[in-house]
Amino acid sequence: MKNRTFFWFILPSLVTMILFIALPIGSVFIQSLHIEHDAVFKEVKNCGPFGCKLEIQVDVEASAQLKEDRPLGKFNGFGTYNNRNHLAASELAQAWADSPNWKIFLSKTYNLPFYRALAFTLTYTFVVTPMVLLLGFCIALGVNSLPKQFKGPTIFVSLLPMIVTPLIGSLILFWMIDAEGILGSTLQWLFEDPNLSLKASPKLTWIMLIIYGIWHSAPFAFIVFYAGLQTVPTDTIEAAMIDGASRWERTRYVVLPHLVPLIVFISLIQLMDNFRVFEPIVGFSAQASATSLSWIIFNDLAGGEGTFFGSAGATSVLTILGVALLLIPVLLRTWRDFKGKVV
Amino acid sequence: MSEIIHRRPWPLKTIIWLLVLCWVITAGFPFVWTLWGSFKVQGDFFSKADWAYALSGVRTQVETGGIFTGDGYFGAWITKSFWVAALNTMIVVISVVVISLTLGTLGGYALARSGKKYAFYLLMLALVFRAMPHITLVSGYLLPFFEWNLWGHLPTAIIVMVAINQPFTLWMLHSFFLNIPKDLDESAMVDGCTRFQAFRHVIVPVMWPGVITTGLFSFLLAYNDFTVTATLLSQANQTMVPKIASFLGTTQTEGNVMFAVAAVVSATAPLFVLVMFFQRQIVSGLTSGAVKG
Amino acid sequence: MFLNKITIAGAFMVLGSTAMAGCGISSGNVKILSNDFPAIQSVTAGASACAGDGVTVEANLTKDHKDIMVAALTANPAQYTSVIASNSTLVTLMNDGLVRPLDALVAKHGAGLNPSQMITVDGKIMAVAFGANAQHLFSRSDILKKAGVTSIPSTYEDVLVAAKAIKSAGLMDYPVALNTKAGWNLGEEFVNMYMGTGADFFKPGTAQVAVNNDHGVATLNMLKSLVAYSNPDYLTYDSNATQAEWEAGNLALATMWGTRGGAVLDDEGSTKAVSSNTVLTGAPTWGNNARPASTLWWDGISISANISDADAEATFVAMMNGISSDVIKANNSDTVWLGAGYTPSAASAGVSATAADGAAPYPMLPFMGALHGALGAEISDFLQGNESAEQALADVEAAYTAAATEKGFLK
């Protein structure tokens, strides 16, 4: 394709992405290199319905000029990236020096919020992604072989886990898995343990989140594979049959190769989405046992009192780097496909 | 497709049926439970005493006099004007899907047909863009949007969702276009079509399965989005999901929780129609035979 | 249940038409941003009654108001003319100079206000409070009696004794609940309990945190002894969950927000046995200290700085209408109202007692939010038994220091 033609085809898409994604990413990165100006304090008398008290307040006027001149704040380089709430190099070095063995070092590392989040994020990503691919593929094959009149309703039901708004979906599921809810009680009955609670133990919480993740994302893989199956070239399959290929061989040598671009695509999207796992943690109130990188960002921006833009920015940039690292194998594969393409 | 491919031995058939059945139950049960529960009062559906109350409707009987009640639906749709939110969602979703797909098919097609290095780098860049957690993006928009008085309006939320969804749309359509043989459009160009004409007359008719699947995802994104709509829309312009969240509020008032449950069920109904309708498209778009090897 | 809501809505309509004449504003934009709970719904509905020729009233009630508040008020003109603030959010807004002093407006339009409603900072009125709230003790008198506990506990040591009695009598396995969901709620429980020691959170006059000491360790240990009598799911318990557990009759002793009192005592969502035996008392003390282990909160009206004076005045007048004695009378049980027209009820007994016993307000310090966040994130490890109290407090200190440095509070 000619450069000019390519440019016009891609332009509208590119403009929206630059305006609403690239520029914000740039500004978030710059913000993450800054911290706020040193606050000037003054002691004032605060009075209210519950009496008066001497308390410290920020003297807004004292630093107004400074804020106006340099609205971004004080330049801090990669200081925020390296502080205790992020990469924590000095804390890690300290932990290394203090630890007689690996186990203690790991547990000390796990005590740092960033690494604790990373541990869950990676586990989640690497368990959920392959499971979703596998389950999605099986369901797609299954649904594809159903009689025509069953396909519509089955597809609809299959899509439900993805469709129901995560916010409410997790509220209802959270309720169902409660010790007094239907799934929670069923599990207690199954394992004959009246004290079993999915919410209480970190281990069970992890398992619960992972199962939820698979349940929630399998429809995505399913529908993409299902659409892909519709385009499998029937001639090739027929030819393979005439050559005496078994069902397994046909699936392995004709259907799968045809679906490779889709497999690459799904793993790409799933790796990314799973690496940014966030909603189930909020929905299941699981932050005591499991946190993720996205959850840390959310907590900095919206969790409590006050917002920490620099800190959230730093974690976001680290998340992007993490995703980029994860995607290297997938990208190499795409690159080979790309080079192999004859134009 | 020839029927012979679909002939299967019975053990395989049984396994397939069992698998699909298991999956359908897993996928559908929480929703059926919700549908059933939406006709109960909160004391039953979220019973702390015994989950079986949700089946028998003990509190519902006490509080409303019947085993089922439509209070949740009445409250959500009439008292709390859920229909306004439904209307807003319709506007947002249709716009997002149409705009995303228009931009995405053009871009995705170009990416699939260009062998140049920059096309690859662009794809990579789009991926990096996609890695950005939405919440960071959205909180980055806040100040400029407030400053320029763009905050709170539907078009703002629409264009933001289109942009956020673009990398995904591009990748997905690019994958699908790779599956459409190049010979199709190239032979059209040999016959004297421009690239755009070839795209318009040759590719467009055969791209529907991919476009519909991609469209389904754009649809779901716009339909289910919470981060963007909750942060960028004012209360008057709220779409369904933030509206549902507002039923819950900070303090869950007795009764309002059931408005949320009823609203969730209501919000899922249109999807049923949609999937039933497009399911045929996904299959029939292919029968024209243009895609065959 | 439904009829109830309709009558309330009807009451507003009547109220609206009478209030219209009394509003006395002819033009201006009123845009309110706030949290979303019943008392605030009543206030904004009262303010909306002022809408009419030339006056527009819009309200955005959302749980996520804190996330957009600063950006919305930084813009000029600000997106919202009023934010319904509390102890903590007012400080956030004042840190950036986003709200204006109200002295002139109060002098002109605030004739009916009590002096105690004024939130003054450095001599200037920055907000007008309308409601008070605090966490305090809810007890089930029938369960306590059955367990042989004769009086309602007034200290947390007594709460532990009573909980033990209830458990060993086989009445309940998990009689105690606090709002201990990891995050803001858990942080708030630590703040409350630490308040009961009488110690300060910060070294006087600085932003340096001072909870990593014996008081902090004692606080953590007290929390741990209490959650030992809580349902194992306690780290997921927010105020909605504790209220539901209470109404289901699964709890005998709980520390809950005062604003839940009305809902717990009424007959909706609960049985007669639970609601008629629920007793609301002040927050307990502990460790031989006099100060109740709780913090007092207020909700109040603040007016944006970056808006025209005309809009500010219109907003103030509309909001005064929102907290007028008529609104208070019509919604008496929503909260502990601070304005004229409020009749104290059984539902407010706990908050009133907590305030009367000398509980301290939640500190209005610029860096309190950073500490609150660090507490909520770091102490759950200790409660789960993964680390020592000293380690947890050291983690809190480290997390706070990093956050406060980023905010410019520490160098």
Query: Would you report the number of β strands of chain C?
Result: 11
* Measured distance between first and last alpha carbons of chain A: 7 Å
Quote the average pLDDT of chain A: 87
Helicity range of chain A? 55-70%
Q: What is the CATH architecture assignment of the domain at 112-340 in chain A?
A: Orthogonal Bundle
Specify the CATH class of the largest domain in chain C: Alpha Beta
Query: Could you state the order of secondary-structure elements of chain C as H and E?
Result: HEHEHEHHEEHHEHHHEHHEEHHEHEHHH
What's the CATH architecture of the largest domain in chain C? 3-Layer(aba) Sandwich
* Major sheet characteristics of chain C: 11 strands, mixed
Cα-based radius of gyration of chain A, to the nearest Å = 26 Å
Please indicate the count of domains of chain C: 2
Q: What structural class do helix, strand and pairing data of chain C support?
A: alpha/beta
The number of distinct β-strands of chain A equals 4
- Principal-axis shape of chain A: globular
Number of helices of chain A: 14
In CATH terms, the superfamily of the domain at 112-340 in chain A is: MetI-like
CATH evolutionary superfamily of the largest domain in chain C:
Periplasmic binding protein-like II
The tally of helices of chain C reads 18
What overall form of chain C do the CA principal axes indicate?
A: globular
Describe the structure.
The complex is a heterotrimer of chains A (343), B (293) and C (411). With 343 residues, chain A is mainly alpha-helical. Chain A has a domain at 112-340: MetI-like fold. Helix content of chain A is 69%, strand content 6%. In chain A, the strands form 2 sheets. Chain A has a two-stranded antiparallel ribbon. Chain B has 2 domains: 3-74, no CATH class; 80-284, MetI-like (MetI-like fold). Chain B has 15 helices and no strands. Chain B has helices spanning 10-37, 42-45, 53-56, 58-64, 71-79, 82-113, 117-131, 134-147, 154-179, 182-190, 195-206, 208-224, 227-232, 240-248, 256-284. In chain B, helix 6 (82-113) runs parallel beside helix 9 (154-179), helix 9 (154-179) packs antiparallel against helix 12 (208-224) and helix 12 packs antiparallel against helix 15 (256-284). The radius of gyration of chain B is 24 Å and the shape is globular. Chain C has 411 residues and is an alpha/beta fold. Chain C has helices at 2-23, 38-48, 65-74, 87-95, 103-109, 141-146, 156-168, 184-195, 214-227, 239-247, 261-265, 272-277, 309-322, 325-330, 349-356, 368-378, 380-383, 389-406, and strands spanning 28-34, 55-61, 82-86, 118-121, 124-140, 176-178, 253-257, 278-281, 295-303, 336-337, 360-361. Chain C folds into 2 domains: 2-132 and 297-345, D-Maltodextrin-Binding Protein, domain 2 (3-Layer(aba) Sandwich); 134-295 and 354-406, Periplasmic binding protein-like II (D-Maltodextrin-Binding Protein, domain 2, 3-Layer(aba) Sandwich), CATH 3.40.190. The N and C termini of chain C lie far apart (55 Å). The model of chain C is unreliable at 1-21 (pLDDT under 50). Strand 2 of chain A pairs antiparallel with strand 4 of chain C, so a sheet runs across the interface.
